[in-house]
């Protein structure tokens, strides 16, 4: 009975270690979702203290027809310029995969929502292990989903580039988990 408990504990710890090595899925605004907030600094407060990494995802949860999410330039973000945005997702919820390091800007194009604080600026850092594939040309902006049939690029989640490789720490964690599981199975065999 005691050896079985040890095996379950070891397997539980291993699964927790493996789970912690995955990319992070962020729900923008947490339980509030993506809507015009009562506090204009709500989304900047939400993003502060978070480290966004290439491969993470942002899920913008909003009601279709009431809000949208546009990926915009810094100047459009700063001035809440909602006119003529071509990289807009109008169907909620929308999930965007962070595909490149850099600062990204998002806002809602509905009436005064941006000026009321429905906008988000984040900085994405590279994963801890450089990609073996060719790097993107400098200055290539990441893309987000678009619902309009325009010449805008496809959403990052459907791009042809491979996903970012696991970090060295992810590989180490996975290896240690397998070693612990092997030891646990061997230990059970000898009891």
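Q: What amino acid sequence fits the structure above?
A:
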């Amino acid at each position: 009975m005691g050896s079985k408990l040890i095996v379950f504990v070891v397997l539980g710890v291993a699964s927790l270690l493996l789970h912690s090595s995955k990319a992070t899925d962020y729900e923008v605004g947490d339980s509030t979702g993506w809507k015009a907030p009562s506090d204009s600094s709500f989304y900047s407060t939400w993003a502060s203290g978070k480290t966004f990494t290439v491969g993470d995802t942002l899920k913008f949860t909003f009601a279709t027809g009431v809000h949208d999410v546009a990926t915009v330039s810094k100047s459009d973000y700063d001035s809440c310029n909602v006119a003529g945005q071509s990289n807009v997702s109008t169907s909620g919820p929308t999930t965007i995969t962070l595909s490149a390091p850099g600062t990204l800007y998002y806002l809602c194009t509905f009436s005064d929502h941006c000026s009321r604080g429905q906008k988000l600026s984040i900085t994405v850092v590279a994963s801890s292990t450089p990609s073996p594939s060719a790097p993107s040309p400098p200055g290539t902006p990441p893309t987000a989903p678009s619902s309009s049939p325009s010449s805008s690029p496809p959403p990052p989640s459907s791009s042809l580039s491979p996903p970012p490789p696991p970090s060295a720490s992810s590989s180490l964690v996975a290896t240690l988990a397998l070693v612990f599981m092997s030891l646990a199975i061997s230990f059970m065999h000898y009891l």
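Q: And what stands out in the fold?
A: The CA atoms of residues 153 and 172 lie 36 Å apart.
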